[in-house]
Amino acid sequence: MDFGKMYKEKLVTTDDAVKIVKSGDNVQYNSYNGVPPSLDMALARRRDELRGVIINTSITLFPLYTITSDPSGEHFLYDNWHASAHDRKIARDSGNYYYVPALYYELPITLQRYRPMDIAMMQVSPMDDKGNFNFGPNVAHARDIIEAVDTVVLEVNENFPVVCGEKTTVNISEITYVVEGENPDLFTIPLVPPQPTDELIAQLVMEEIEDGACLQLGIGGLPNAVGELIAHSDLKDLGVHTEMLADGHVKMYETGRITGRHKVINQGAMTYAFAMGSKFLYEFIHQNPACTSHPVLYVNSPHIIAQNPKVIAINNAIEVDLFSQINSESSGPRQISGTGGQVDFMLGSYMSEGGKGIICMSSTYTDKNGHLISRIRPTLSEGTIVTVPRTIAHYIITEYGTINLKGKSTWQRAELLISIAHPDFRDDLVKEAKRLGIWRKTNKVND
Prior knowledge:
Layout: H1 3-10, H2 14-17, E1 26-29, H3 37-44, E2 53-57, H4 65-68, E3 76-80, H5 85-93, E4 98-99, H6 107-113, E5 119-124, E6 132-134, H7 142-148, E7 151-156, E8 164-165, E9 169-171, E10 177-180, H8 196-206, E11 214-217, H9 221-231, E12 239-245, H10 247-254, E13 270-275, H11 279-285, E14 291-293, H12 296-299, H13 302-305, E15 311-316, E16 319-321, E17 326-327, E18 330-331, E19 334-335, H14 342-351, E20 356-360, E21 364-366, E22 372-374, E23 376-377, E24 395-398, E25 401-404, H15 410-419, H16 423-436
Parallel strand pairs: 1-2, 1-5, 2-3, 3-4, 5-7, 7-10, 8-14, 11-12, 11-15, 12-13, 13-14, 15-20, 16-23, 20-24
Antiparallel strand pairs: 6-9, 16-17, 18-19, 21-22, 24-25
Helix pairs in contact: 6-7, 8-9, 9-10, 15-16
């Protein structure tokens, strides 16, 4: 098969490629660095010709040209699986933002069964000599998008790393058109420096990690702090099975903390669904067999996660109420991020032999008026989304301590949560717990 000839036959300009979109179509972009900027810009130029085109993606790393060109949503509607900072701004400024609730490991099945799509567009690496384009750091659900549609348009970016793993490519024979974009550098995530509170919490997290543990870390200053502490610790033979691979994982690997020796699946390799971070991270994963990327249906499925022993899943939250319902994605009814894989890894880590699902958060935050607000609340406010139900909640850590909620009754959970709240709020929380009928003061707090 002459892949070069096939490439030339399918190569078109971005403006010609987007002519296949018609009013009412559902256009699915890949996520993260897989969102195709040149195609999105070309489609935005067709705004006035189109009505009711749905653009669907998640965690955009730049403001989508289609959506920002049409705040009214008359031409382009925005459906999103997980909000980024850019998406939150769109939601705030125009309201043309609609969240699609999903557990991440279920997303591939949802795409196939319940989310009819017309066209897929995504950014990929240049074609290799076998006619394959690599998804780069965006493998997660890319292959599932390809298999759920009949029309596929690829935007080639010569700066894309080529990653190792499974189902990391799409072949020229499977696509409709290919365009050559402007080859932008991959978007990077600024390294968020840990706050003093993050460092205190990270120290407590370290007490829950032992030699041979298999780690999943989320994003932000706190996971960075944990990664930094691990990198300079004497922990041995750690493994990685994580939704997102970040710079912290690379640092732990380069200091010899990570060997993957005790992993049951993908032994010796850092397993991940997608990677986001610095240019150094993208260079590190390029053709590196120490990092293997796999579809999210594999990486995030709880029964797959659980096959590795001592899985430690470390994630952030916004707030928790005294019934131990955890909100990690909204401010009242306003979507901040998404459910993502947090529930997936909370379930999988608990099913893992010796595993722990850890939710970390500072005990307070300061609002825009300078008021100190407790993240441990009597009840979640109206419209707030429950990300992790109380039935799944396991460990919660603030700068004031670590608690384990499994097997605890409502009054025990309330008492434990108040014990790790900021001292200034504890008396009021006790009063509220009494009012809610979940308070029974004891002489001993069990952890």
